[in-house]
Design a protein that fits this description.
It contains five helices and five strands. The two termini are 20 Å apart. The protein is of the alpha+beta class. Helices cover 49% and strands 18% of the residues. The N terminus is likely disordered.
Length: 169
């Protein structure tokens, strides 16, 4: 089994430009998401931020991905929704980043993937730390099976990934 896993996750040196391409696309997505989230929080506090994050993150990821001809997404060490549990190659990617939490390019299942660790920062704590009051109630409403709390500042929250190729098996 270890041999099979090694074949699926190949640590290969990033080709010229792959790391930079992944970083640029990830930065664009994070900037747009944070701008949207900060605006929502300014307009209605963290509860409004939860609503906007719930509805806007996916479409923003799709828009950025389309602009660059890639696929991108996020996976968490703990999930907000059972539908977002890491599966297959995502589990392997998360394990690789947990082992080496730095931006990197990996080959998994014949795909070149840029992976960037996401760490808990101060603004994340209202929803991912020990939420209480209306924030806890909003999380319970939007994410009744939420496991993405209990983090401390600096904890690894998950991975932002960019599929740099569009190969299929």
């Amino acid at each position: 089994m270890k041999r099979l896993a090694a074949l699926l996750l190949l640590p290969m040196m990033a080709t010229a430009g792959e790391l930079e391409q992944g970083q640029a696309i990830a930065a664009e997505f994070k900037s747009e998401l944070m701008q949207t989230l900060k605006s929502a929080i300014a307009d209605g506090g963290p509860v409004n931020g939860i609503s906007v994050c719930n509805s806007a993150a996916g479409p923003l990821a799709e828009q950025v991905a389309q602009r660059h001809g890639v696929t991108l997404g996020r996976i968490g060490t703990r999930t907000r929704s059972p539908a977002n549990e890491p599966q297959g190659w995502q589990t392997q990617l998360l394990a690789a980043v947990e082992q080496e939490p730095t931006p990197q390019v990996l080959t998994i299942d014949n795909h070149r993937l840029y992976a960037e660790p996401l760490f808990i920062q101060k603004p994340c704590m209202a929803c991912h730390g020990e939420p209480a009051g209306e924030v806890k109630a909003a999380l319970d409403t939007y994410y009744p099976n939420d496991k993405a709390t209990g983090y401390a500042l600096g904890d690894l929250r998950g991975v932002l990934w960019v599929k740099l190729d569009q190969q299929t098996q």
